Amino acid sequence: MLESDQGGRSSDVPFGWRIVDAVVALRRFARIDRLERLRPYIMLAPAVLLVSLLAIGLLYLGWLSAHAFDAFLFEQGPFSFEQYRRLIELPSGPFYRQTLYRTLWISILVTVVSLVMGMPVAYFIVRTRSRVLRVATLVLLLVPFLMGEIVRAFGWFLVLGNQGLLAWVQSWFGFSGGILGTELAVIVGMMQVSIPLATLLILPAITRIPPLGASPSRVWRHVLVPLARPGIAGGAAVVLLLNLAEFDMPAILGLGRLPFVANVIRDVYTLQANLYLGSAFSLVLLMISTLLVLGLLIAGGAQRRSRRVRSEAGG
Amino acid sequence: MRNGGPDESGAKLVGRMVRFALGVVLALVVVPMVIVVVASVSAGSRLTFPPQGFSLSPYATLLESTVIRAALGRSLIVGLMVVAIGLAVGVPATIALVRYRPRFRIGFGVYLLLGVATPLIATAFAFLVLYTRAGVLGSLWPIALAITVANLPFLMFSVASALTNLDTSLEEAAATLGAESVQTFLFVTLPGMMPGILSGTIMIFVLGISEFLISLLLTTIDSQTLPIAIFASLRGPPPPEFAAAAGIYVVLASLVVITLTSFKTTEQFFYRND
Known about the structure:
The complex is a heterodimer of chains A (315) and B (274). Chain A is an all-alpha fold and 315 residues long.
């Protein structure tokens, strides 16, 4: 191979090399180096454009939400805050508000429980000496994330449903009464992906903390939790965002009796064909989630900064 | 270790709590997964417990069902589109952010996270109003675009972690030895990034074919993807062929995760020390 190359017979040069040579020649010819300074921006442009679709969509959402809608003529009305008023005032205001509260309290509860359960699991993954156990736990935690929302709900429906696993187990003990249609069912279903996600997000923060000699309970209280705090705050933000947009568990495990914001937004679209009210409710959720996430990130970051200041002051 | 007694009992207590949490979490994660797989190989026309016996008939029924086959086909097309768009857009952007350190680097990075920082229902509704206006509802490519926006960061994180672990001195050495920048990129940088690109690709493909909420708002009756078809089946005890469809997702997700964790970069990603 090498010898024939040195022999100079061009037909022996691998095809790929000739393509590369052509590209190099083309670049020289087009004097692409002139664009050197612009290169990172050119490389970023397609991604920025793609994400701009969402940005434009969100702006359009804001535009629609600030207009009236004539449901009979199916026309856009004049500029008004009618949609936001409908979210608050009678007749349906209390229903929307109740939906929002339910979404918030269940999401926050699930997030908190996920962090509380996720910390020890992350600790186990980092500290266990058995590589098999560590990898097996990681694998099991990642699978629910990739199998998708609907398949998770499907699995829980088979567990909690009328003729499901839980009812079967209960029949051994001679009692019945499923939890389908209750808050508990929705919460349990949401945990299946929230806890793994919280665990995986906390993991890097805990990995960074070296094992210490002090008693475990003290290490937890005084070292692990405070040092992992920015990681925990970031993890909480991601898990909370995921939970606030939950759809399947309320629809399937809650039997539609306990709708979340996402369920109501979809109903407003499919039943009333009202893009305007849906836009307003989407924006309300977006604003609340942004505030909560920023609050969490600031809480996580502020702690770090104040500690740095304190350690600098202490010498 | 001053007072051994309380410390030791404290250690035991923490150990017990860790084991308890681990047990609860693994049960929550594993039980529904196993049930789906069990249901997908059960006999009987409706899924009930205890299963009426072992049978592969759900998978046979699935293959016969034109509705599910069509939905599966659409999901695969969407998944491939998500990969194509994601790679074309995400890989150059990641290289630019990690290697070239442009001005407003943080700003660009945060902007590209928009799809993850927006609650999924708001993302879905934003695309719904946009596509309604543009009149493109009912095609598959708009769905793929929307799903890519929401999942792009997963690909970019994966590529970025491979790229940061890559030793820049290799590229410098190639350049010193006279390699053109094109050659350096093709024969040094790209192969070095390959594990990250590969795991990111697999991840967004699986996220693309299992995506639910965006598809729910953007699909019409004629363009249902598989997750939407499964959702529509969940009105009562689901027919067995849908358990088979769900079973495919569980098996696929498990295979993918096992493949990903066998890459060294995945482990490095979770144990990174940044």
